[in-house]
Amino acid sequence: MQPPLSIPLFFNCQEVISMHLQRIQSFIEIARYQSFTKAAQSLLISQPALSRQMKKLEEELGFPLFLTSRTGIELTAKSKALHEELAPLFSQITNIIEHYQTEGRIRFGSTPYISTYYMNDFMPSLNTIDILVTEVRQNSRELLPLLENRTIDAAIVEGPPEWEDLCSSFLFRDHYVAAVSNDSPLAGLEEVSMGDCLKEHQILPAENKRFTDAFQYLAEKTGRSYKSTAVHDHAHSGFVSQGMGIAYFPELMAKHIEYRGITFLPIQERPLYRDMYLASTSPSAFQRLLHVFG
Fold it and tell me: 3-state class of 72 per DSSP?
C-alpha cells in the first residue's frame, strides 16, 4: 500500500506557486527594462537563469513572450496584453506584503557625520522602530547603489536621488562654512564673501565631484580664478590648521566639532550647500522613517 500523498502534494503546490510568482516577477522586469541583461541585474540573478525561467513560462502559457529586434527585445501582442493585466496585480501583491511587514527590521545606510550629528537627535524616536545601520560610507552618494541592489532598505543621501524607483523626501539643507587657520587674517571676520574665499589657496575634496562642480560654477560666476589642491576629506583639517589654504565643511559637522587651530566662518548669502533626502526602496520603511525624520 502506497503512503498518503497529501503532504508531498501540499509542498509541491507551494513550490509551484512560488515558481509562478518568481517567473511572473521576472517577466514584468524584462518588460520594464526591455532587456534581459538589465532585468537580470535588477533581480540579482544570472542572465542564463533568467532565460531558462522565461522559456519555462512560455511552455506553460503556450505562446511566445518576446520578439527580437535591432534595438533589443519587444513584447508580442499577446504578452503585452498579459503584462498590462499582471503588472498592476503584482504591484498590489508587493504592496500588501510590505504592509504586513511594517514591523520588519530596516537596514539603514549612513555616513559617519549623519549618524553622529543628525540621527543622534532622533534616537528616542528611532529606538521605537527596528532600525540597524548596516552600511557606512564616507560619501552618501555611495549608498545609492546599495539601495538599488537592495543591500539596504533606506538611507539619507545627498540629492535629489535620480533612481526613479526610490521613495524620497527632502529632509534638510546643509550649508557649507569656510574653514581657515586661526592665524589667517580672515579668522577675525564675522563672515566671509566668496570673493574673500577665492583669494586664498583652495583645499577641495578629491572625492566629491558635486561640490567641486558647484564651487567651479560659483568661481566662474564671480569671474575669479583660483589655485587649489585636491585632498581626501579626512585631511582637510590638517591642511587648514597649518595655514595651507581654505576649506569648506558642512555646517552640521562644523557646529558640533571644534578643531584645534581652525576657525569656521559663515559665507555671505550661503551659496554652497547640499540638500539631504531620505530615500528608501520600501514604501512601508519610508513611511516609518519619514514619521521620525519628517
Answer: strand
3-class SS at 285? helix
Residue where a domain stops, chosen among 99, 126, 148: 99
**112 and 77 share one domain:** no
Characterise 230 by phi-psi region: left (phi > 0), alpha (psi -120 to 50), beta (else).
beta
Q: How many domains does the chain have?
A: 2
Helix (H) or strand (E) run with residue 89 in it: helix 77-99
The letter for the amino acid at 151 is T
pTM: 0.62
Q: Which residue has the cell 527632502?
A: 170
CA dihedral sign of residues 253, 256, 259, 263: positive
Given 73, 99, 125, the domain boundary residue is 99
Q: Confirm whether 1 is domain-assigned.
A: no
Q: In whole angstroms, give the CA distance from residue 274 to residue 257.
A: 19
Start-end of H helices in 182-260: 194-198, 209-222, 236-241, 251-254
- pLDDT averaged per 10 residues in sequence order, the chain, 294 residues: 39 54 89 88 82 91 89 89 90 69 78 89 88 89 88 91 80 96 95 94 90 91 90 88 94 86 95 94 90 89
Same domain assignment for residues 93 and 180? no
Q: Please tell me whether residues 178 and 289 are part of one structural domain.
A: yes
Structural domain of 94: 6-99
Helices (H), 157-198: 194-198
Give 192's DSSP letter: B
Backbone phi and psi for residue 26, each to the nearest 5 degrees, phi listed first: -65, -45
